[in-house]
Amino acid sequence: MSFKIDDRVEAMDDTITGVIKEMKGDKITVLSDDGFLLIYQPSELIKIIDDRNLTVSNFEIAKIKSEKAIPKKRNSQLVKPKERSAPKMEVDLHIHNLVPSQRGMSNYDMLNIQLDTAKRQLEFAIRKKIQKVVFIHGVGQGVLKEELHYLFGRYDAVKYYDADYQKYGLGATEIYIYQNS
Length: 181
Known about the structure:
5-stranded antiparallel β-sheet
């Protein structure tokens, strides 16, 4: 768009309107309606047309302003280091997630349901070649955690360790499944 001295303009990134007072190269000096002299690039200004034959509607101006407000996407790696090491699967072993009601169940019954679920999910992960699984067991008295470690220790291709403390605290164990093929 071409500008000339005394054109009324609006800044795209600001709520500033004013009149062009000077043009030098790619610098346009605008006297704002508030009385300040401001310098802009031509690409930062929109010409305001006073007659009723508007060539740019307020909707279009708002659209252009919103597009300029969207930050440019930076070129980033597709896989960030933390995402690469992030678990692919989570298994929450809290009993209230596994049964509709634990009324009348003994601790032994609840522990067996949790261990059966863990074993089923572990074997599913091995079959589907999922390398990392986090088992969320909670903190409690550590009985379930110890039983899980015993279960994981019976598999040759499984290594287990505490899951990410920042994400899970002390209540989760992550396993890594070594893939043969």
